[in-house]
Amino acid sequence: MTIYDVSKQSGVSIATVSRVINGNANVRPKTRKKVLDVIAKSGYTPNAFARGLGLNTMRTIGILCADSSDIYLAKAVYYIEEYLRKNNYNSVLACTGYDIENKKKSLDMLMSQHVDGVVMIGSNFVGQSVEDNQYILDAAKSTPVMLLNADVDSPNIYCTLCDDLKAMQDTVGLFLDKGIQDVLYLYNSRSYSGLKKLAGCQSAYLMRSLPIDTKYQRLFEGARDDVDGVVKFLESIKAEGLKFSAIVASDDILASASAKFAIKNGMKIPDDIQIVGYNNSIISVCCEPELTSVENRLEKMCAQLVKTLISALDGEEPPQKVVFSGELIQRASTKL
User: Fold this and answer.
1) At residue 53, what are phi and psi to the nearest 5 degrees?
2) φ, ψ (nearest 5 deg) of residue 146
3) All domains of the chain, ordered by start, with CATH?
4) How far is CA 168 from CA 171, 215, 250, 309, in A?
5) Residues 87-119: tens digit of each pLDDT
6) Cα 210 vs. chain centroid, distance in angstroms?
7) Residue 201's closest CA among 151, 167, 232, 235?
């Protein structure tokens, strides 16, 4: 029996069950009795989720991150741990890699430590089917699960994300509105976020009744930080005879590699080729010229995620999804 089962049998939300367990006065007597009756009949024993009573709570949050060497994910870990400390919570970090079985094992490890909640950083933890996400749904039956930049609609799962589809749609649309249709879209992931960005690129064409040419949408399947590999990949595309006057990349590493490709091949930025990255990371201002990039509000997303988590642990009913809008930060690599 889990808090999820008590919620289901009582016909109330998980947050309401938590308020009853914590002795919160903001519960109607009839509702309180119904929940307590279910608890009494089932023999349910609150775990660390019921932190208001101090029952087995460690005031600790488990954090899952696929790759701590990834600049975006590492920054997210930093922000989340910082905001957790401000709320008097500790954290346990597990770096899972990208293999699904390792992700499941790491989540099981954290759950065995009776953490008060779980944070999954990055959209690579979320699959495209219910079966892919079952391990997340199972964890949410006993503790709040927070997803950063991913979306799963299920009880006790809270999502904080950037509208990557709209941000990429708007970015590519700026080129199309200036008559620049030979935009090469370069991406390196088929994660939830990666597919949303790809869909945004495609929708920019569809909104303007322009044909989608898949030759201009290229997936780099090498290592995420293989800059020289990206350069060679772009050179192979150029050797095919495909002409492009702009590159929109799904992250700043790809964009910086695109700048290296352009310089190596005698192209002037932004006169001969314009380049846009994504995430507005430190990489975007370490290039010459500095890169135009989409700001996806990472710090604000992390602050909101922790705020939502604390609210859920306090037995309140926070929003299950908070969506931030991206913003294009224009620098010297474009002339939009």
Assistant:
1) -95, -5
2) -110, 130
3) 3-42 (1.10.260.40), 57-161+298-326 (3.40.50.2300), 164-295 (3.40.50.2300)
4) 5, 18, 9, 28
5) 999 999 999 999 999 999 999 999 988 899 999
6) 30
7) 167
- CA dist list (Å): 104 to 62, 120, 135, 155: 13, 12, 7, 19
Here the tokens at position 68 are: 């701590």
| Residue 159 to residue 135: CA distance in whole angstroms | 16
Q: How many CB atoms lie within 10 A of CB 331?
A: 19
> End-to-end alpha-carbon separation of the chain, Å?
57
Quote the pTM value: 0.84
Torsion sign, CA atoms 300, 301, 306, 312: positive
CA separation, residue 184 to residues 14, 196, 275 (Å): 46, 17, 10
Instruction: Specify the residue for token string 């509105």.
Output: 177
Measured between alpha carbons, how far is 125 from 144 in angstroms, rounded to an integer?
16
- Let me know: does 150 contact 120? Beta carbons within 8 Å: yes
**Assigned token pair, 41:** 């009949």
Name the nearest CA neighbour of 75 among 323, 276, 295: 295
Mean pLDDT of 192-220: 97
